[in-house]
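Section 3.1: Structural characterization of target chains.
Under the original work plan, the team committed to producing a structural model for every single-chain target entering the pipeline before any wet-lab resources were allocated. The record below documents one such target. The sequence was received from the expression subgroup and is listed exactly as submitted; it comprises 230 residues.
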Amino acid sequence: METLGASILVVEDDETLAMGLTSALEHERFTVTHCDSGEAALDAIEDDVPDVLVLDVMLPGMDGLSVLKRVKADHPELPIILLTARSAEVDRVLGLELGADDYVVKPFSLRELIARVKARLRARPAAPRAPEVYRFGKNEVDLRRRILMRDGDEHRMTTHEAGVLAYLISHRGQDVSREELLQHVWGYSPSMATRTVDNQILKLRKKVEDTPADPRHILTVHGTGYRFEE
């Protein structure tokens, strides 16, 4: 995707910070819309889905994590960058597990945020290296459309679920570390607990395995990560 003119929705209730973010992003020739509440953000997204959502966690009324859950349920492909003053690792992990693509901890530099927005825009159109449609066991997956067909039933996959599955399929028969998945699917490798990946694996196993507790296709490699087998 060409980043020039891409639409960015900034959801931030601090007026001074919001003005600074808007000015900096517009200087980079992005099209910027600003909302100061979670409810207003949901209305704005319903009218026009942006290319990237920059979302503050601490909002009046509906908080940012609640907005995140709602948006990802309706628009799983939308990249979301969280702005948070919370420094505890558990809060950052929670945001990622709910579907956030990245986070920036306040206080932050505008250059850093802009770089992360551009990284999300560059990563968004990347096609998986796995075949677009792939069959294994009782499953047929359309990785581009993020649709899984199993026993005649259609299931939607989130962006991260499809990304993890595509990366494992493209490296089938090989051991893939959690850190490798974080880097290639989420776009970076944060120094935090990797249960973010484990959470996605659990969700995938429930969709593709006959017995998720005794998987046949997505195997655990103890001490390393995971391996995909047909």
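The chain has two domains: 7-123, 133-228.
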